[in-house]
Structures are given as structure tokens and as C-alpha cells.
């Protein structure tokens, strides 16, 4: 099919690609219609038909998206027409007219695509030439639009607090000034603006949920994907031809750790719940708190929306292992803060949220089963991933990505300074800390003996499923631990391996020893020689062995120092 110059621009334009994917997601949500992104870009008749359906749907967001797409196409057409003109106007009047037209285009684009909140958005700083253009001293130069350093889209959990704080800290580290958050009418679409060597720059940030990280990476409308769940195997395969394998160490970056917090209305008399009861509550099988020993009060279930990685984590860690589905009448929320505040204000309410968003709600301790120890999420139990609902937060940057600024930002976020920002917003960093755990009454005598005078470090080493290779976090933690030991000379490392309880106890003991030795060999490559490498089989479980999630957490190598 032959395309016009405007249609060719539509195929490659990043803003338009982002709008097309949002139209597809909203159309699927509204009436189940799945739009073909490729045809939206290339087939004018197909695109016009889809936009007409969106306009006639009666849905406010669909109508706004259709309007924004049409306006972007008009702007692209106008840009194409201007580029074909032989030369710029030479008279003073014509020069002023050209500058005014450019400003109008910018204003129209901002109105339809980036609607600012006038009460909270600071004025964009101007370069000296832009300031002259505004005053009339430099009639040939319109107001300069800020240069986008990189775009970061995806998880609301990462994007509400952590990512903005990291971007601001990063910009400051490279010498930027006048750093501010520029909000829009869409609460989860914002810009971090700054002056860098006198030039206005910005970082685009959209936080519509983890799934949109991979949708937007596929569309080319973002440089970095934020996710509160690991990329799914089907997403890896779909993106591999164009972006490479995003599950590899070079592309998958563990940014922080978070405890998936179960929260309740403060008046409910429950300080702890087991996973089975939590699943039944969220599935709607328990409809009154009286059924589990509470007051005669209806259960009000609150959950994150389907685009959220927090929802995916809850589904995989709580509902699926118990064979449950979310209750059809559950309230669904895009915003973490809104969900938490609604639970705190609603009698009988229960919800789940990322740890930084507990706010005024009641935090509930969680156990894998009725017989297991209930654990509250705190920085140490989340960092070691011993808390039943601990999870990892991710940044995805294709290894073949050309945007060097995006790569520098990711490197900053993973380093010590970036991890300090992680702590500052209430999430759990990967900077190493120590703790002296309370001895458990049923721990093996040998384990009690070797750890009696030691401190435990805030990390565990784990392996790729069915493999003897450390997972991506473990590979980076090797270097973190080497740096920790260089900063703490004289400390000696002990590596203690464990398995789940499946299989023969003798075989499990041998397997736990093998895992500890594998980690030891990685350290020896960096000149670190552990003072003790020992396996304890299926002793000292940190989770139930009745679920796959629990068994995964029991397969670990602990790190102790003396």
C-alpha cells in the first residue's frame, strides 16, 4: 500500500505510537475490540474507522485519545508541508509570522497531548535565545521546546515515587539545575524538567502499569520499562526479534525490593492472616468478617487494576497457589495511594499495596499457612526475601539501546547513591546491611553454633529455576558483597546453603552443599575466600514447602559474617 509523507511520519512517530497503544488498551477495556497497531499506522481507512468508533463510543477517554491522534496527524502534516518550502521568509513581517506559527503549533500540541495543570506546573525555563524571541529581540527564533533525555514508562509502583526521585537525583548528579516535576491532567503522566548547561531538558514519565512497560518498549515509545513483576516468557519471545532477550543480565535490572503489603481498615481486629484466608477473602468466599472471628461487618475487597505489576504479583503469590480468582465485585484502582486511602476510610475493607503506600491503613502480618510463623514486612525480611510476599522491582533497558543517557541513568539507579534514594522513598535498597536475628527454638545445633557469634547480611543468593546459575540479582550481589568486604576489612564470610523439603534428605543435604560451593567459587574469582561453606539441607525453612513460591524461597544460600 502506497503511503503519503504524512502517513510515513505516522509510522515512525514516537508520540503517535504511544497514543495508538493507549487507544488499543482503552478500546479493549471498553468493548473488547482489539485494534491492529500495524494497520493503525499504515492503513488510513482502517485508522479513520477506528477513530470514528472511538469518538462515537461515548467514552470520555476514548474520545480524548481520538482527538489527540487526529491533532498529532494534523501537526505531522503541517511539519511536512513546512519542510517542503524553499527557504525561510526574508522580510521582518514574514519572519514574525513564521515564529508565531511555530509557537501556535507548540501550544496546540501541548493542549491536546500534554495538558498541564496550571496550579502545580512551574514555568519552563527558557534559553537566552528563547527569552529574546519572547521579548521580540530575536525575531527569528521561537520558544525552544525542551530536549527529551529519555522516556521511562510502566509500573505505577515504581513511577509514583521512586522513579521521579531517582530522575531528580540523577539530573542533579550531572549538573542540572532548576529541577521540577511538570504535571499534566493525567495524574500518572508527568515530566521532570531541568536546565542542563543552560538548555531546557526533560524526562518523560508515564506510569500506567507494568504491562504497559513492555507494550511501549515494543512500540518504540519508551526507552526504559518500569515493572513490579518480572517480564513474562511470552513477552520475552515477542520482543526478542527487535529488542533482544530482555530476561538477560544485560537488559534486566533489579532496581529495588518491595513487600507486597496486605492492608485493612484500622478498626479490624486482625494483626495477622495466613495465605489461605487472604485468598478466600479476596476471592469473595468470605463475605463477612464474622466468618473468621471478627465483627459482623461485610468484607470490602480493594485491588489494583489489570495493568498493574502489583496485581500480577498478588495474583501469582496469593490467589493462583490457592486456586482462587479475584471477586467480581472487587474495587479496582490504578493509583496505589488512592487504593490505600480508600481502604483506610472504608469499614470492613481489605486490600494489597506496595510497602511505601500503607499510609493510614493497617499493615497485616502474613504467614504461608496456619502453622507457619507470620512475618511483617520490614527492610530486612524483604531484603532477604524471607517475607512471604517480598518481590523485586525492575528496570528493563534493551542491551542494544542507542540512548546513552538512558543507560547512564540505569547505572546510577543501581549504584550506591541510587540505592540510597530507594531507601528514602520507603522501598528496600540492595545496599548491604547486617542484622542479628533472634535464634529459633527448633534450629539445628550446628546452625546455632556457627551463627551464634555472627551477623547475617541482608541478601540471599538464589538460582535460575532448574539451573546451577545464579539469577540476575545474585550475579550483581556478588560484586556488592565484594565491595562491602573491601569497605569492612577483617570480616570473614560464611555461606550456608539450604533446599526445600522435596526429595530424599540425604540428597537435599548434598544439593545444599553444592549450591553453597557454587557461590563460593564466584567469590574466589574476585579474591574472596569464605571461612565456612556448609549445607544444611531442608533445615531452617523460611516458608511453607506446600507451595511452589514457598519452596523457591527455601532454596537459598544465606550469607553471614564474623
Rg measurement, Å? 27 Å
Quaternary assembly: single chain
Q: What name does CATH use for the topology of the domain at 432-561?
A: 60s Ribosomal Protein L30, Chain: A
Characterize the biggest β-sheet.
12 strands, mixed
Category from helices, strands and their pairing = alpha/beta
* Helix share, percent: 40-55%
Number of strands: 17
CATH structural class of the domain at 432-561: Alpha Beta
N- to C-terminal distance: 71 Å
Number of helices: 20
Q: What is the overall shape?
A: globular
β-strand percent reads 15-25%
**Average pLDDT level:** 85
Describe this structure as you would to a colleague.
The chain has 562 residues and is α/β, with parallel strands linked by helices. Among the domains are: 1-86, no CATH class; 257-383, 3-Layer(aba) Sandwich (D-Maltodextrin-Binding Protein, domain 2); 432-561, OmpA-like domain (60s Ribosomal Protein L30, Chain: A, 2-Layer Sandwich), CATH 3.30.1330. 43% of the residues lie in helices and 18% in strands. The chain has helices at residues 5-12, 14-31, 37-42, 44-56, 60-83, 92-113, 128-135, 156-173, 210-219, 233-243, 275-283, 309-319, 336-345, 379-383, 404-414, 416-424, 445-451, 472-487, 505-525, 548-554; strands at 147-154, 177-182, 189-196, 199-206, 224-227, 252-264, 272-274, 300-304, 331-333, 349-354, 362-367, 390-396, 434-435, 455-461, 493-498, 532-535, 556-561. Strands 1, 2, 3, 4, 5, 6, 7, 8, 9, 10, 11 and 12 form a 12-stranded mixed beta sheet that branches. Strands 13-14-17-15-16 form a 5-stranded mixed beta sheet. Strand 2 (177-182) and strand 3 form a beta hairpin. Helix 5 packs antiparallel against helix 6 (92-113). The chain is globular, with a radius of gyration of 27 Å.
